[in-house]
Amino acid sequence: MSQQKWIEAWETLTFDNRFTRHLPADPDESNQIRQVHGACYSRVVPKTVSAPRLIAHSREIAEQLGITPELLRSQQFADVMGGNAVHPSMDPFAMCYGGHQFGNWAGQLGDGRAINLGEVVDVDGRYQTLQLKGAGPTPYSRFADGLAVLRSSVREFLCSEAMHHLGVPTTRALSLVLTGDAVTRDMFYDGNPKQEPGAIVCRVAPSFVRLGSFQIFASRDDVDTLRRLADFTIRHDFPHLGEPSPEVYAEFFAEVCQRTAELMVHWMRVGFVHGVMNTDNLSILGLTIDYGPYGWLEDYDPGWTPNTTDAQGRRYRYGHQPQVAQWNLAQFAGSLLPLVDHDVDVLQKGLHLYVETFDDGWNSMMSAKLGLDKFRGEADQRLFSGLFDVLQLAETDMTLFYRRLADVPSDSDAESVCDLLRDAYYKPAEINDEVRTATADWFSRYQTRLAGAGVSDEKRRARMNRINPLYVLRNYLAQLAIDRSEQGDHSGIAELLEVLRHPYDEQPGREAYAEKRPEWARHRAGCSMLSCSS
Ligand code: AMP
Ligand code: MG
User: Which UniProt keywords apply (predicted)?
Assistant: First the structure.
């Protein structure tokens, strides 16, 4: 294809690179690892790879960006998404940010293996940044190679899209490209490095700015750059707040708190465990961002973390996520102090809003999960906590439990409820008299509550099935798709994505994707435990 034709093929996309146009750039354009001061980003081009090949894509995102099916199928699309070509409308860069990792300030982090290609104005006029993850080293790569392996890229690709279809705010994934190059990884940090296939995901979001993007400037007393980033973010991503001022910075903070609280309610609803909720992994837009050693709760255990690096402290366990988000927001508040004349109280309001939004959201979410008409105060809260106790009596699959509960007629004999829910239990032998009695007691209370609400079983079931997914990205399902992909059969990724596009609908013929984790997957790497190595 001639250079001219090549350029024209991308003309259905409109690029407008606001981030690089409005914000201060690192004057150094060399690709050397360094501390970057007074700049929001460094210009850097993706690393060339041997044989870029598109192995999966999201058709919804492609359409949203205005990418034609012809372009999608072309080798030049794989070339761009693999990092081998940069279109003249793009302006590739890596962002500077810092963060608290596992509760400790870690200084400068930045896009160590993510390279933003530029911003596309999508078919609805919204700005979307395209970002290649695993596209090679940047000035922020610290001690690592800037690359990503196939297994972690499949996981990021699938989970981004699965979350979207579940109705959970998230960054999206446009494409998954195999680079044709091998990447060395010591998966369990035990001195057994292996060669793995390299891959690149193109992530898409209105903004990839994180809480840590603000923290880095505050930590360096660089109030000028801090203000520029805040003003840029408010003008472009929070324009409804009006022109930046101390009051508007406080409102901005409050809205970030509100969105983050809503996100936590969603994660708790679907059983998602992020695994690495460092402040650099929390989005300013309240999106789920940075899919690493995340996992899906199978057995309902609030203490579970999929991340082997977090196995000791379990800071990022399922049940602790709402508190961690609040802690992260408090760190973020600290970094905004110079913009609000150091008025702690005005930011405290945002943190209160976090608690209020989370509590309200949690109560209505739990009511909806149980098919109640609405949340009716303390008695309902007792019903919820009673349920969490019951869920922990025996190893119980959270996803299946809610779906099966929706099918249980409200006039069922309470004593038989465990039999009706048997699909959700991992070990039938655990369902002893004690479990039966406790479950029956709880179910009787639920029956009374349902009678008071006057909701028909049919309505309740429909209401519950709209909020309780049947198909989630079970850890072992992702691993099976990865195993096939590593053997050269990439079709499992598209098959799984197809199922996950309709997570709340029963899909005849696809029952296997809704089954609880098989025994072989209980302790297999990638299925129940993951390291940060990716
Ligand atoms: P994470 O907590 O995995 O999101 O990453 C923390 C920091 O490490 C971020 O600044 C990443 O960009 C960086 N990082 C992670 N993996 C790599 C890698 N393979 N090469 C370079 N930087 C990386
Ligand atoms: Mg990260």
Answer: ATP-binding, Magnesium, Manganese, Metal-binding, Nucleotide-binding, Nucleotidyltransferase, Transferase
